[in-house]
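Hey team,

Filing this mostly as a record. A colleague (T.K.) asked me to run one chain through the structure pipeline before their review meeting, and I want the input and output archived in the tracker in case anyone asks later how it was produced. No errors, nothing strange. Just documentation.

Input sequence:
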Amino acid sequence: MAYEPRWSGEDRRTSPRIAGQGSLSAAVMDQYGQPRSILKQAQAVNISGGGLAFTSANTADVGETVNIRTEDPQGKPFRVRIVGANRRGDGRSELRAELIEGSIPASLMYGW
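Output structure:
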């Protein structure tokens, strides 16, 4: 029987992922670009150049657009699209999102 590895490397990320830090202000946007709901107590989990994962007390649906701001007054808001959502054991939601507009602020990645 020939050895066949399970992981081929084809699913590698194009941007490295690092641990995130910091609170976020996150709002789910409607089709007109207006806030529809607030994602309460949002906290960054991990960050990459292509998106981020964060937790929230409530959730958003896959495909929804979320506008995010950081506590850094110099940081610019950015938009992401939710690509995955799971409920954690502590009752919080973990949301995975891809960047669709703007850029991930350095303050989330490096704490400055």
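Quick notes for T.K.: The two ends are 53 Å apart (CA to CA). Helices lie at 106-110.
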